[in-house]
TrEMBL record:
Alphabetical list of InterPro entries matching this protein: DUF4321
Species: Candidatus Cryosericum hinesii
Membrane-spanning segments: 56-76
Top-level taxon of the source organism: Bacteria
Name of the featured protein: DUF4321 domain-containing protein
Annotated keywords: Membrane, Transmembrane, Transmembrane helix
């Protein structure tokens, strides 16, 4: 896989994940199973220095729509 194709595939997967999460949240009001998903990450870590406070952490929230559209966009990007 060439570099340009890989970049396009990654862009399609990220776009699918973003659109899927929005779609899953919107449709979750009508179809509750769309909100079911995984929530994982690293809790906040706070480093307090005398002159500043640094807080680091990340969380991934994935629902059915996120996974479905990310896989769909990955499949579509292999066709392009």
């Amino acid at each position: 896989m060439r570099r340009k194709e890989r970049t396009i595939s990654i862009a399609f997967v990220i776009a699918g994940a973003i659109l899927g999460s929005v779609l899953g949240e919107v449709l979750g009001a009508y179809y509750p199973f769309m909100r079911a998903g995984l929530h994982f990450g690293v809790p906040d870590f706070t480093l307090q220095l005398g002159f500043m406070e640094l807080r680091l952490g990340f969380t991934f929230n994935m629902n059915i729509g996120t996974v479905g559209l990310a896989l769909l966009f990955l499949f579509f990007s292999t066709l392009v």
